[in-house]
Every structure is written in C-alpha cells, then in structure tokens.
Write a structure and sequence with these properties.
38% of the residues lie in helices and 17% in strands. It is an alpha/beta fold.
C-alpha cells in the first residue's frame, strides 16, 4: 500500500524514510523477503506509507512463522519482489534511510536487486551511545521502555516503533549534548550529523528512561547485614545484590583501563573522525563524571570502538580507605587477582576482616585470576610494536584458521625461529616472560588488534583453606547452601542421550510435562542443536504458549523482556551457561526440566592441559564441574514447583551415581515409576 500525501523536496534534511523487511531467514542468497514496510516522516509527522507482503514459493520456517505471524497462506496473491521494485525505489527516493541494524535490510534488498541509494542511519549504535544502561539493544526492549508503539516483527509495526525510537534518541541528544560532543559530531562522517547539529540544547530530559531489570541473586541468609569495617568477597552478581540491599556498601573494583586525557585529546584533535571513532569519543564524553574521563570498565565499548580507546588507556588501581562507618565488597575474581599481585594483597585486604561467600565455581575463578596476560596496551605507545608484531607473525603461521580457540603452545613451538624472534623482542621490554618448563602458554589472536600472550603455572591448584593459611587472612567463610531443599524427579527408563529413539522419547516426555503444566516452564540442555529441535517441537505442539529459545529469540536482555511481558505463560529453552549467567526472571516457574547432565569442564586452556597429563582427569575435573553446574542450576531454579532430570545416566552409570551422591547433600530425589 502506498499513500502519496505530499510532494517533498528530497534535499529536506528533516525528512527521513524508516524501513524494515521480514525474511524467511538470515542468508542473503538462499532466503527470501516476505514483507516490506517503509514510512516517510518528519519529526512526529508521518507523511507517507508503503507496506506490502511479498509472494514466495519458499516454505516459511516454523520459527519465522512464530516470530512474525506470517504464514505461506497469507502470501497467496501478493506481488513478487520484482513487481514492487520500481514502486519501492520511487517511494524512498534519495531520502536518508533509518532502521535498527539497517545494513541487514538494505544489504538483503541489494542482494535481491533493489539497491537503495540513500544515506544509512542506524538506530542500533545510536542507542548504544545515548542509552548506556540498557539490558538489551533490541528494538523490542528499547521500545518497551522508551516509546509507545511496540514492535511485533511485522514490518510496519517495527517501522512505527523505530520512528518513535529515533525521535526519542534525538531528544536525548538535545538533553545530553555539550560543546565537546557537538565538536565531535561536527568532525564526524555520520550521515545524520547535519540534522542532529540543527537540534537546540534542552534542559528537560525525555520522560521515559531505561530501567535495568537484570535479576539479582539472593544473598545467603547467614550473611545478614555485614558489619562496618569489613570486606565481603562474592560473585559479581552478589555484589550487585549487596549494593542494592545496602546502599552504603562500597564496591572495590579494579580500574586497570583509565583513559589518558592527553591521548584522548590527541584523538579529538584529528581533522576528521570515522563513524567508529565518533561513537567511541561520544561514549567517553557522555560518561564523564565530575568532568573526569571514565574508565573503560564503566562504558560499553563494542568491537572497533574498544580497539580505538584501548590504546589510550593506562593501568592503575582504585585507592581504598577503610573507615569505621562503611562496609566494603570485592569480587572473587579481583580478590584472587590480588593474591597473585607483587607484593601479594593490598594492605586493606591483609588488615581487614573478610567475609567470604562460598560458591561452586571458585576453582574456575581462581584459575582465571591466576592467568597472567601480556597485553599490548600495558606498554607505552609504540614501545612494544616489534614484539607484538613478531608474536602475530608466529601466531598466524601456526594457528589453525579453522580453530576458534587460542593457540595452545606445545614443545615443538618453542624451537621455531619465529618464536625465538618474538621472545628476543619481548626480552627487551623488561617483563617477566613465561617459562615453558613451568608454565602453560597460549596466544589469543584477533584480526582487529594485536595478539595477547597468556600463561599459567602448570602446577596451579585451588585450595581455599591453604590460601587463607598461606596469607594469614582474617576470613570468615559463609558456606554455599541451597536455601530450601529442592526435589528432583529422575526417569531411569529413558534412553541414554544419543541412543536409539532418544530424541523422539525426550520430545514425548517434554510434551507430557508441558501438557500437565499451566505456568512458566524452563527447559535446560547442553547444546544449540537440541535447543533448536525442542524449540521447533514446542512451536508445533504448543502454539498458544509463549515459546522462547536462546539464540533464536534474541539477546539475553530481549529474552528477559519477553518473559516478563507474558508472565506465567512461557516456555524457555536454553543452555546451562545461559541459565546460570542470566537467571531468567520466571517468577511463576512450575517446571525446571533438565534434559541432559551438563558433563563439561570450564572453557579455559588450563583444563585442556590437565586432560592430557592427568590420567584421572574425568573424576578430578569433569565430575566436580558437572556437579557444580547442577548445584548452581538447582539453586537458581529451586523455587520451581517441580524439577525434572531426563538424563537416565544419573541412575544407570557409575559417574552418574557419583554425581547423584554429591547432590544428595542438597536435594531430595524421587524416581518416576510409571
């Protein structure tokens, strides 16, 4: 549909076209466009509208049908894409084109032969810059908090929401702009800069703002109210909960990456700023506190933005003064880093009462904190160029291009001339270099930045009691406990994973459990393949439920938003890692269904090394880590009315029985006998 309301001068800098498409998938070549919508607008005035479904013979995947509501039957009689090409190009003309991740829409159209010439204006990076505390930058989440019209994954609805979002961002710019940010935009290559520079400064903030609804963990009851002049050591999530429950709590954080004002001024002095440089500089300036440049810890820098700002930083630590009227908190990771410092531990940790919150993943945190990183940004600019350049040549030669992990060094690597060249260059930098006899060494390489060299002692071992004694710490340990006794139902007659008839049987069992439940359900498994299978099955069987899946339903913040939007009617399918990291906000959780035992180890090179040298690796590392994953998952999901474990190996294998015995200290097991 097209409505010709006005003849406009296409040089008008205040008129834009907002565009969105819906497709059968994300592959430009193989997938097809099934809907296009565009709206011409100026400010709050909608001038003209274009919207149409597009016919395709390609079957629309059920996941896309669920997301958009568009079915093949709805496309019958609709025009082919080629038939609307001229009409669409005439509609958009040369006006600037706005969209959320607009490159996807325009590149998809371009692949299909519709090349739109207008300047591209993407509200996604604009939102990341002007709305720094969003839990997700999806159009759905931003619209939920900031605008009236809500997107539905139908093209026109998404366009209307996107227009409101663009206008809201313009209002935010009017409120937040400063002489410094205006100069940055003036030097920029941003396609919308003339419009934003024409907007006057205002002193009234937009009425709506993002509310960070990240769920908080529950603090252990034994903690109570921490007394003054103490330091509580906990996970990052526990520190957030502490600060929320006790506003006078002061968080001790590492500030390794403070931005050097002189170097930042040099960047600003450039005659022109690229798009990435512009967004990076705007984020720095918009996040100043008391006119001081922020730490990179305190701003959301993405991709190339981080590569631009990181070389401008220097290493430091946050000074801490313990007084009698405040209690403090520090993360496990930072605490363990202080154990490795030279000299070990700051005075405020040595001489202060520590309250240590136990946690299943302390060994993992200790391993990561015990890892030393030799990073390009730790050196004055230009001083380490040769060393890291030679390290990059070595990594490029020996790293498998098809491997996504780091290059884990082996004995033969240390005899290569490229390694010796890099080692000789690093020797001139006056740093402690790893010893291949004592240390496990690996290289992380990235096309956009210099490589990093990391290492850890091959004898690294975590034992909390020994750590306390070795450093003479005044520490009280609050043991990790499950607050209430959870009950788990196990199903010993199910086929073992990947066995004959496994997938069909698991789907039948999930079908039965969902059918007999009327509130929220969370299904946790170990891999994306099974997530997709269960997701498609649930979409077919339960079209009336709000079925959500990790990877297929958007970012973690977007998923949290979807859950809270349809409270008590959700089916969420995700991995253990997702569940543990993001704690989905399912207040009415009737069933937590654990499809498979999370038999895995931490993703750290140290454990790959241990697997090679420890003949009892499975018992020493795999089983404890699996037990910890289950324990933490059960603790988060213990408010569920039912917890079901569909992996029969917990009953039918020796290692399963070992895991069950470990869990029995915290949970009660029942066996399904029907």
């Amino acid at each position: 549909m097209q409505l010709n309301l006005l003849n406009l001068d296409q040089s008008d800098s205040s008129t834009f076209v907002c565009l969105d498409i819906e497709t059968t998938g994300f592959n430009y070549e193989d997938d097809q466009i099934i809907e296009i919508a565009a709206v011409k607008f100026s400010g709050d005035n909608q001038i003209d509208t274009f919207q149409t479904l597009i016919y395709t013979e390609q079957a629309i995947p059920i996941i896309v049908q669920d997301l958009t509501g568009i079915k093949n039957t709805m496309l019958a009689g609709k025009p082919l894409l080629a038939d609307v090409k001229a009409q669409l190009l005439d509609f958009v003309g040369n006006y600037p084109i706005i969209g959320h991740n607009i490159n996807f829409d325009l590149d998809f159209l371009g692949t299909k032969g519709i090349v739109i010439p207008g300047k591209r204006i993407d509200t996604f990076p604009m939102s990341q810059t002007l709305v720094p505390n969003a839990i997700s930058y999806s159009l759905e989440t931003l619209s939920y908090h900031l605008v009236t019209h809500q997107p539905t994954h139908r093209a026109l609805d998404d366009v209307l929401a996107n227009i409101e979002l663009f206008n809201h961002l313009a209002a935010l710019w009017q409120y937040k702009q400063t002489p410094e940010t205006i100069q940055i935009v003036e030097k920029s290559t941003l396609p919308y800069k003339e419009y934003f520079l024409s907007l006057p400064k205002t002193t009234t903030p937009p009425q709506k703002e993002i509310i960070d609804t990240t769920p908080l963990v529950k603090l252990p009851a034994a903690l109570g109210t921490p007394p003054n002049k103490t330091i509580t050591v906990g996970t990052n999530e526990q520190l957030i909960a502490l600060k929320t429950d006790f506003p006078n709590c002061q968080i001790i954080t590492p500030h390794y990456q403070l931005i050097d004002p002189a170097k930042f001024e040099q960047l600003l002095a450039q005659p022109e700023l690229t798009t990435d440089e512009t967004y990076a500089c705007l984020k720095v300036c918009l996040n100043k506190l008391n006119n001081q440049l922020p730490s990179t810890n305190d701003i959301n820098l993405f991709g190339k933005e981080y590569n631009i700002i990181s070389p401008l930083t220097y290493a430091t630590q946050q000074p801490v003064k313990i007084d009698d009227t405040t209690f403090y908190a520090i993360s496990h990771n930072y605490f363990f880093q202080q154990l490795q410092a030279t000299p070990p531990l700051n005075d405020y940790l040595k001489n202060t009462k520590l309250i240590f919150l136990d946690h299943p993943f302390l060994e993992e945190a200790y391993t990561r904190a015990s890892t030393t990183t030799i990073h390009y940004n730790n050196f004055p600019q230009g001083e380490a160029d040769l060393a890291f350049g030679l390290l990059g040549i070595f990594a490029q030669k020996f790293h498998d291009a098809n491997s996504y992990g780091p290059l884990l060094m082996e004995d033969f690597h240390f005899t290569q001339p490229e390694w010796q060249n890099a080692k000789d260059a690093f020797a001139k930098l006056n740093i402690t270099f790893p010893n291949p006899q004592q240390d496990l060494i690996w290289i992380n390489s990235n096309d956009d930045r210099p490589p990093t060299l990391q290492y850890i002692s091959k004898g690294a071992d975590f034992n909390l009691e020994q750590i306390i004694n070795a450093h003479g710490l005044n520490m009280e340990i609050i043991k990790y406990t499950v607050e209430t006794e959870a009950k788990i139902t196990v199903y010993p007659r199910l086929p073992v994973p990947n066995g004959s008839g496994y997938d069909a049987t698991i789907n039948q069992k999930i079908d039965y459990l969902i059918t007999n439940s009327s509130k929220d359900i969370c299904i946790v498994t170990t891999n994306y393949t099974q997530i997709k299978e269960i997701y498609q099955y649930c979409l077919n069987k339960f079209p009336h439920r709000n079925v959500i899946a990790q990877k297929y339903s958007g970012s973690a913040g977007k998923i949290s938003h979807k859950i809270t939007e349809v409270e008590g009617h959700n089916i969420l399918i995700c991995t253990y890692q997702f569940y543990l990291q993001h704690t989905p906000p399912m207040a009415n959780l009737e069933r937590l269904i654990l499809v498979k035992l999370p038999i895995m180890t931490p993703h750290h090179p140290f454990y790959s090394f241990k697997e090679k040298v420890d003949s009892n690796y499975f018992n020493h590392y795999v089983i404890p880590h699996t037990l910890n994953n289950l324990l933490q998952t059960i603790n988060i999901g213990q408010h569920a009315e039912n917890i079901d474990l569909l992996d029969s190996r917990i009953e039918t294998t020796n290692y399963g029985q070992t895991i069950k015995t470990g869990l029995s200290n915290y949970v009660e097991f029942t066996t399904w006998t029907n």
